[in-house]
Amino acid sequence: MPAGRYYLAVGALDGADGAYTLRRHARAITTTKTLANGLRKAVVGMGQEVRLALRVTPSVTRPATLLFERFDPIDGWLFDTTLRPTLVSGRATANYRPAGLGRWRVTGSFDGTYTAGPSAGGTAGFAVVEPLTLRALGR
Description:
Blueprint: E1 31-36, E2 41-45, E3 50-57, E4 62-72, E5 76-83, E6 86-87, E7 91-96, E8 102-110, E9 119-129
Parallel strand pairs: 2-9
Antiparallel strand pairs: 1-3, 3-7, 4-5, 4-6, 4-8, 8-9
């Protein structure tokens, strides 16, 4: 094996003991990035869709997960929904229409494959605001 950093995980069920055989199983280390309207933080008007992008390197073709949460001033971050877009050549997009005004966030992740390890893509945030109009200004 070439020089490098390697990880080894050994486990037993319910305290079992016995002989172990180690087999090498290499997986690529992946990185994931989540964006809302092309940014890490975005602002959208009420009723507008948010365009989500998930990028995974190295490229994979596989389902991914986008987990949405809304901020409640009393209870903090609350689960809203999950989308499962499919990554194609390391890229996935999805549209999401938030249900109301306020702060929202989406966390993207890649669940991994036999040859590529899982990775979390961080969080992209977006605020849903009332569109500014002359009527909103009282004119």
